[in-house]
UniProtKB/TrEMBL annotation:
The lineage of its organism: Bacteria, Pseudomonadati, Pseudomonadota, Gammaproteobacteria, Aeromonadales. Residues 23-110 form the Rhodanese domain. It comes from Succinivibrio dextrinosolvens DSM 3072. GO terms for molecular function: transferase activity. Keywords: Transferase. PROSITE patterns: RHODANESE_3. The keyword Transferase applies. InterPro entries: GlpE_sulfurtransferase (IPR050229), Rhodanese-like_dom (IPR001763), Rhodanese-like_dom_sf (IPR036873). Pfam families: Rhodanese. This is Rhodanese-related sulfurtransferase. It comes from the Bacteria.
Length: 115
């Protein structure tokens, strides 16, 4: 894997870069869509935290370290802009905006029926 430099702030990244970072295990992948959207298929390893539920308290449960790079995605890439600003205001340093899952060329996972 090529070394990827992650700059502080909000950075747009493409799918191959996101995939490499996800595979490296050095980032937290957050799906900011609503629960129903998440349950219709998500990127393996993604943690669901909808934009509407995103507060400092809920986000710290998912990402306790402000210096851990966060990769965020939604359906089309529109909500990630708002989510990125929110995360930056909360104090997260490295926010990677992958845009939308709608064109994700890699594997999609579907949740098992859970009670």
């Amino acid at each position: 894997m090529a070394d990827i430099t992650i700059n502080a702030g909000i950075t747009k990244i493409d799918y191959p870069t996101a995939y490499s970072l996800i595979e490296s295990g050095k980032c937290i992948l957050i799906d900011i869509r609503e629960k129903e959207e998440y349950e219709s298929g998500f990127i393996p390893g993604a943690i669901h935290l909808s934009l509407n539920e995103m507060t400092l308290e809920t986000t710290k449960k998912v990402a306790p370290d402000f210096a851990t790079p966060l990769i965020i995605y939604c359906r089309s890439g529109r909500r990630t802009i708002e989510a990125g600003k929110k995360l930056k205001q909360m104090g997260y340093y490295y926010i990677l905006d992958m845009g939308g899952i709608s064109n994700w060329p890699y594997q999609i996972e579907f949740p098992q029926n859970r009670n």
